[in-house]
Amino acid sequence: QSEDSDKSSKESDSETEVEQVSGYHKLLATLKTSPESESEEEEDESESEEAEESEAEMGSEGSQNIGEAEEGEEDKNDVPEEEEATDTAEQMLSQEQADGTDTSCDPRHGVIEEFTDVKHESEFSLETNFMEEESGDCNADRRDSNPFKQHMDKELEEKEIEKMSTLPKTSSQSQWPRLGQVIFSSTLEKHKTLKADKEVDVKQLHLRKPLESTWPKVNKQFLSAVDKAIDSSFTPLQRELFCIMNSYQDLFYPERNALTNGEEIRHAYCLHALNHVLKANAQVLSNNAKRRDRKPGTDSDDYRDQGLTRPKVLMIVPFRECALRIVHIFISLLEVNDKKKIDVSNKKRFKGEFGSDPEEKPPNLKRPEDYEAVFAGNIDDHFRIGVAILQKSMRLYAPFYSSDIIIASPLGIRTVIGAEGEKKRDFDFLSSVEILIIDQADIYLMQNWEHVLHLMKHINLLPLDSHGVDFSRVRMLNLNNWSKYYRQTLLFSALQDPQINSVFNKHCFNYVGQVAIRNVPLTGSISHVVVQLPHVFRRLEADSVTSVIDGRFQFFIDKVLPEYRDAIMSHTLIYVPSYFDYVRLRNYFKKEDLNFTHICEYTKKAAVCRARRFFLKGEKQFLLFTERFHFYKRYTIKGIRNLIFYELPTYSHFYSEICNMLKATDSGADATWTCTVLYSKYDAQKLAAVVGIDRTAQMLQSKKNVHLFVTGEN
What is its main location (predicted)? Predict the structure, then answer.
């Protein structure tokens, strides 16, 4: 129920009232529809995997799950309404893993309000603390003038703001050793293109104490023998990424890979975020001491050193495990040695709510390596936590308005922001965010991209309440409502996608400019197809991006589907990336009374087993199959002889994965296997990721269908 999954949307200390049923609950009800069968543990998957090994076992599995139910009930197992298409599919993966540990929002434990640490408020207050003398860093804000103070102290003029709001960006490109093709864009012409540093001296990076000494130790796990030989504390990738981060330009890096470079990227942006917070807080504490010791009548405008609200860094990550790793990196970077441990408030509670029990993982589940890397640890995707850092202490579960860093999932932040018209909503804490980090953005396409867009619309707005701020300490850029022009956005993804590109291009306004990595794939994922299979790429014409949706549907039912209606074309799997398209096709197939079954991310486990069995035995000619189901489950579908990609996959490696499922069928009829792919000129990025850039150029120029034959060695 929505009340069970609800968390308080308010992060202030004073809030103690119990939330009433409102539009907020209704929102959660749509976000977390959780049928009983979908809350079953992942270990049940092993049963269905084993069950399909033989038809006899499969039959008994199906009968156990559904009893005497008719096949027609299958439709009831899908969420029928199209508005449910944007729901997240977090309930598909180990819900009990999160529900069993996060007692802070479970009414059964007698606690309704979201837990925040209130008792350490004075200890972590920026307003009432001063720079410690022993740190020797009272003048660090002057010494560390570059690049933090250069960026934040820059005073933009009205004409520059107008220029950024109206004029298009100019761009240039450069080839970097590790990042490849780097595109720089900016409206203000005076900002020059960065050059890649071949070597980086940690002492020249203006890292705040103790990061200068702790970073080499924390990061040594990623360093190669070559890096260690040249006494480098960064990998080549980290060196170039941090060079851009430290310049305070926006960054879009679409080649993050959970298996290879994901953790070294996480360490790099954690270093940058922590460095920024330590410098910002040191500036405030130093000015506190100056204000205390100043003579009466001194102009107070010299001490404008903060925003309208305290949170400076917002980190968006998909799962609790990601938040856990980030906090561990922060702790490692702040601890100089075993003797100088930092005090971390509520560490035990954090470990209980964000950690996972290794024994909970079901054994003997065969999944691809990338799946295991993405879905490691606690994969609950509804969370948020405030982190306050002050000198030698860290406070977890700080109320948002007392936090320096907020770590949240898109769903977690969405339920705080709320929707228009709701009484219980809050987004003032986003008003003065200076660094926004969106990691693993591609996963949000599989969860609910609307949550990301909703966040971007509510960040860096003027707050509706003052929240006790001392306006004499607020920077003029914040008072002028220019925060968005100073915000740095770091966006990391595993792929190029128009929706992700749109966020970077339309919601990032950094006056320093943007940097995007734009490498084109030379070879596509089609080269990883190991079965001998003819691939037919059929081009459909469309006048615009919006018309391509209807155009694709008409092309499919007029040109493609008639060729597969014959009974000889049985065992046809239709791969559909969009849930909206899936619903449309399902309704059409019903209307036409076609012999089909279907599986989507909302299909109950019993219906999945039944659909797979019917498809394998040939009792159903077609199987409609959504991309999000494949993303969350990665089942091997047996019995495929004909493949139709209604649209190219979001993840290019899904193309080869689905094609290679054909080898799971024991059949000598290899010559009868077919693969048909629908594409348009608007699918250039996805097409290049599948067939490579050279073939893509040829296919987009040609109006004809393209036939490719993969032998398994290509």
Answer: nucleus
pTM for this model (two decimals): 0.84
Q: Tell me the C-alpha distance between 141 and 350, whole Å.
A: 32
Tell which residue, 261, 379, 255, has the closest CA to residue 318.
379
Q: State in words which class domain 525-711 has.
A: alpha beta
Distance CA(234)–CA(222), nearest Å, equals: 8
Handedness of CA 447, 45, 50, 73 (dihedral sign): negative
Nearest residue to 515 (alpha-carbon basis) of 151, 157, 180: 180
- Residue-range domain boundaries for the chain: 163-291+304-517, 525-711
CA 382 to chain centre: 13
The closest of 579, 595, 591, 628 to 80, measured between CA atoms, is 579
Please tell me what DSSP assigns to residue 395: E
d(CA 342, CA 336): 9
**Which residue, among 10, 116, 1, has the nearest Cα to 422 in the 3D structure?**
10
Residue/partner pairs of 187-190 with CB below 8 Å, 24 or more apart: 187/163, 187/511, 187/513, 188/160, 188/163, 188/164, 188/511, 188/513
Torsion on CA atoms 124, 125, 126, 131, rounded to nearest 10: -60
Is-contact 116 399, C-beta < 8 A? yes
Residue 339 has a CB neighbour count (10 Å cut-off) of 6
- The residues that bridge with 535 in the sheet, in sequence order, are 675, 708
Domain 163-291+304-517 shares a fold with domain 525-711: yes
With contact defined as beta carbons under 8 Å apart, do 170 and 178 qualify? no
DSSP, collapsed to helix, strand or coil, labels residue 475 as: coil
CATH of the domain spanning 163-291+304-517: 3.40.50.300
**What is the average pLDDT across 532-555?**
93
Beta bridge partners of 677: 537, 645
| Whole-number Å distance between alpha carbons of 476 and 472 | 10
d(Cα 331, Cα 354) in Å, to the nearest integer? 15
Q: What is the pLDDT of residues 28-72, one digit of tens each?
A: 343 444 333 333 334 344 444 444 443 333 433 333 333 333 344
Residue 228: DSSP 8-state: H
